[in-house]
Amino acid sequence: PPPAVHGGLCDHKQLSKDELITVVNWKLTRGKFRPLMGQVRSNDHSSVASATSSGISLALSSKPRADGSHAKKPIEAITALRGVGPATASAVLAAVRPEAFPFMADEALEAAGCKREYSLAAYLRFAGLMTERATQLGPPWCAERVGQALWTAAMVDAHSLPQAPPSSGRSGGGSPRRTGKAA
Fold first, then answer.
1. Can you give the residue range of the structural domain that contains 33?
2. DSSP letter string, 51-81
3. Is 123 inside a domain boundary?
4. What are the pLDDT digits (tens) for 112-167?
5. Integer-rounded Cα radius of gyration of the chain
6. Does residue 44 form part of some domain?
7. Residue 20 counted as domain residue
8. Which of 5, 40, 59, 73 is the most buried (most CB within 10 A)?
9. Does the residue 183 lie in any domain?
10. Where is this region: Disordered (predicted)?
């Protein structure tokens, strides 16, 4: 999520309504427009604080699992808000626990071999794949970083940018976009 939101997450472990709107606006710049802002704005301040606090608390106490099941309750807590689906909830949680909660970007979903499906089940599959790949790659990789790498590779392909040569070592390496699968 945008840097302006990190303060609320780090200092208070919850988002204000304005911070949630900032996250939704940021998310809309990274993917397909979906007309949900009216629903997001209809949430009252206390509901936003309560749902995000609950989701973040659950995320902080969850243990990452390769099947993605660790993400179920935190995502459900935040998606209780009107206009907030798994992708928006994942943006909030990626800022708090990047090792366990990758942002559900359309391009990263496709590069991981997943369909563009915006359900809890789809996010759990995606989070599991990103967590598993990060474990295979080892430090400094985390689920969110793997997702960012897939998003970046998709952007390079989409915009026909020149490819960087593969690096040696475990911190970079070849591009997953050739196979279309991250895991």
1. 3-178
2. HHHHHHHHHHHPPP-TTSGGGHHHHHHHTTS
3. yes
4. 999 999 899 999 999 999 999 999 999 999 999 999 999 999 989 888 877 767 76
5. 16
6. yes
7. yes
8. 59
9. no
10. 160-183
